[in-house]
Amino acid sequence: MLGIEFRIPEMDFEGQKLAEILQYVILGLFGIAGFIWGYICESFQQTFYVVAVGSMIASMVVMPPWPIFRKHPLPFPAAKTELKKPAAVAKGKSKKKN
Amino acid sequence: MSPLARMNNLTSRANVILANSLSVLAICTGMLFISTLHLPVEPKFDFKVNEAQLRYQPDHMSGRRDYLDLALLRYDLKIDMSDSFHWNVKMIFLYLVAEYTNEKNVVNQVVLWDKIVMRGDNPVVDLKNLRTKYYFFDDGNNMRGANTTLSLHWNVVPNAGLLPNIRGEKHISTVLPSDYNF
Can you give the residue ranges of every domain in chain B? Predict the structure, then answer.
């Protein structure tokens, strides 16, 4: 559109691993804190609220592909220098060889 | 749970977070159940019967055009549930049961009164000279002089866990009149 190419950046593999560990840590900590807080308040509703807030924070930290999750990009393979033969393209059958 | 396609795009990460926060909530609920297993729900209560009358009552309900025995009780009821509502009790359902034996049936049980007490409501029930909330009918004419035992039962409705139905240890016995009052 208008000659502008916009792409949502994606996490690399290391970033995905980090994101998975991070969401486990955040949700687990908020779960423990929520249980303790609910026990103090004598109200399971408070536990639910704390877990819900933890879920939102985890979403904000882990869901968008922040730059911290894009620190290990995979190198692109070198472009092939070979040119296809014009005859093969015209036939349209020998494409499988590529 | 493939390690390759779990966190690779926005929606799958949202899915993982939602699923895991629900798992955390489920674990918290289980811990809630375990943390309150040792806490008993035992309201303190006291009650006494002030007056018992017996009535020869035409039965308009079943269409048999019969006469049934109807007992009319007046009683005091005092229940204190202040200590009973820990964080796994959502509701207590109290009910008062009269039990008697006669020639026709070995066991007769009639619920005379009940009340729902939610957590946060006034935990003290103090009622004086109360009539029965539900009719204390016999299914025939065998109520005269019946030795009636009144007992308080309660159901505990928790947030998570068991649904105990407890019968209070304290009972009172009252003998119904040996002849009809009116």
Answer: 3-35, 44-175
Residues of A in contact with B27 (CB under 8 A): 31
Residue A89 lies in a domain: no
Q: What's the Cα-to-Cα distance from B4 to each of A18, A42, A70, A82, B1, rounded to whole Å?
A: 13, 42, 16, 32, 9
What fold characterizes domain B44-175? Immunoglobulin-like (2.60.40)
By the CB < 8 Å criterion, does B8 face chain A? yes
Residue A8 covered by a domain = no
Q: Which of residues 44-103 of B touch A (CB under 8 A)?
A: 86-88
Domain count, chain A: 1
Q: What is the pTM of this model?
A: 0.77
**What is the tens place of the pLDDT at every residue in A71-89?**
888 888 888 777 666 665 5
B24 contact residues in A (CB cutoff 8 A): 27-28, 30-31, 51, 54
- Asked whether the beta carbons of residue B21 and residue A64 sit closer than 8 angstroms, the reply is no
The yes-or-no verdict on residue A33 having pLDDT over 70 is yes
Q: Looking at this predicted complex, what is its ipTM?
A: 0.79
Residue B1's pLDDT is: 46
In Å, how far is A51's CA from the nearest CA of chain B?
7
In this structure, is residue A86 part of a structural domain? Answer: no
